[in-house]
Amino acid sequence: MADYDTDLFVIGGGSGGVRAARIAGLHGARVMLAEEYRVGGTCVIRGCVPKKLLVYASRFAHAFDDAAGYGWTLGEPSFDWPTLIANKDREIARLEAAYTANLNRANVSILTTRAVLEDAHTVRLLADDRRVRAKHILIATGAWPGMGTGIAGIEHVISSNEAFHLTELPKRILIQGGGYIAVEFACIFAGLGSEVTLVYRGENILRGFDDDVRQHLRTEMERRGIRVICKRIVEAVEKVDHGLCVELSDHDDIVVDKVMFATGRRPNVAGLGLEAAGVRLNDKGAIEVDQFSRTSVPHIYAVGDVTDRLALTPIAIREGHAFADTVFGGKLTAVDHAYVPTAVFSEPEVGVIGLTETQAREQFHTVEIFKTTFRPMKTVFVGSEARMLMKLVVDGATDRVVGCHIVGPDAGEIIQALGVAIKMGATKADFDATVAVHPTVGEELVTMRTMTASYVREAAE
Ligand SMILES: Cc1cc2nc3c(=O)[nH]c(=O)nc-3n(C[C@H](O)[C@H](O)[C@H](O)COP(=O)(O)OP(=O)(O)OC[C@H]3O[C@@H](n4cnc5c(N)ncnc54)[C@H](O)[C@@H]3O)c2cc1C
Question: Taking Cα atoms as reference points, which of 300, 289, 367 lies closest to residue 334?
Answer without folding.
Answer: 289
